[in-house]
Amino acid sequence: MGRVFTNLNRIVAALLAIVTFSLPALADQEARLDRLFADLQKADAVEARRIAGEIELEFEKSGSPAMDLLLRRGRDAIEAGDTEMAIEHLSALIDHAPGFAEAWHLRSVAFFKADRYGLALSDIEHALALEPRHYNVLYGLGILLDEMNQPDLAQEAFARVLAIHPHHEDVTSAMEDIKSQLGGADL
């Protein structure tokens, strides 16, 4: 019985060390994201593209090489058109890192491409709960709502994207399409 407690104490000590050393890194990443989002608001279109790229790189950091590998495999499977494999990789990633918003985001993309809109919407909800400023998730929500013949709600999602990333090129063209669907009505 004493040996079990000794091993348990070592495990608890190791977990505390991991948490203690990872908290400053998480705080640094959050502070960096805050600065980048503030800069994004003030940037011109060219600078906004660069800043958005930096934000997206931050979103892709899981803190674990193994989780990063699953994310890459999921993304590669999406790009190759293998949505089922993408869903498998990204589901494994979410099982191991449920607090990683980018995993939920990419799995929502895979579900959308597999015409599984309810599951895509659920993953979008999880991703936004973890990172409400994730403009690509909001963009995906707008695309999904438009696909579901909800142009007024899609327009709201796109407006939220532009409030965060005023120069998001895909949203600008999507807003024009939505405006024509709604008969040219202003926001």
Please provide a written account of the structure:
This protein is an all-alpha fold. Helices cover 81% and strands 0% of the residues. The longest helix has 41 residues.
Describe the secondary structure blueprint for this structure.
Layout: H1 2-42, H2 45-59, H3 65-79, H4 83-96, H5 101-113, H6 117-130, H7 135-147, H8 151-164, H9 169-181
Helix pairs in contact: 1-2, 3-4, 3-5, 4-5, 5-6, 5-7, 6-7, 7-8, 8-9
Summarize the structure.
Helix content is 81%, strand content 0%.
Sheet having the most strands: none
Shape: globular
Q: Indicate the structural class.
A: mainly alpha
Low-confidence stretches: 14-24
Question: What is the percentage of strand-forming residues?
Answer: under 5%
Helix content: over 70%
Element string (H = helix, E = strand): HHHHHHHHH
Radius of gyration, in Å, reads 19 Å
Number of strands: 0
The overall pLDDT average reads 87
Features:
187 residues, single chain
